Amino acid sequence: MPYFGVTASFQSSRRIPNRKSSEASCLVSDWSEWSGCAERCKATYRLRRRHVTREPRNGGEACPALEEKAGCLEYWTQQGTLCKDSILPALITTGGYGKARRKRAVLSGRERLMAITKGCLHGNSSYTHWMKYLSEGHSVCVECQHPALDHKSLHCSGDGSGAQKNQLLHWQAVGNPRCRGTWKRVRQRDTCSCPSVHSFLFI
């Protein structure tokens, strides 16, 4: 009987695995480079992806998102010519996007938001959170820099440079076509000081 007891204990320890030691969370690769714009000469999106290098096992942490989108606009056709100057309304994104491209700021404008659609409140992606801070009546700063800057006119499309005083101009947030509205141009300056949540960039 003592021998049988030892044998039973030995078999039991082999048949019941240590669950914690076999648990494994998902592992993913680094992000790829951003793709080009999905389409040219219009507000669209770009992509970056990553892939799973190890699947989760035994209750390990699930895999995160494998794809991200961001708004973008390509100003050149496949033939290498500049897109026609018909990209309206003004396309804007958060000012933080400017840090990701070479800084060649030339002009900044101050605009007053007059009307905003409810679609600005429904952006669930990480790159649309900034839209929730848009509020009617607030003054915002919008920077005009390369590549949105037209080197001949030294203006950005939709910046209201040729608009009459108090004329309502239209804008749209890149990455969420439901987020759009109207604004009035207040003034043009070499520098413009606004809170980060009210600092934007022409695309």
From TrEMBL:
It comes from the Eukaryota. Residues 26-73 form the Spondin-like TSP1 domain. SUPFAM superfamilies: TSP-1 type 1 repeat. PANTHER family: RPE-SPONDIN (PTHR20920), SMB DOMAIN-CONTAINING PROTEIN (PTHR20920:SF4). The keyword Cell membrane does not apply. The keyword Transmembrane helix does not apply. This is RPE-spondin. Transmembrane segments: none annotated. It comes from Ophiophagus hannah (King cobra). The gene is RPESP. Keywords: Disulfide bond, Glycoprotein, Signal.
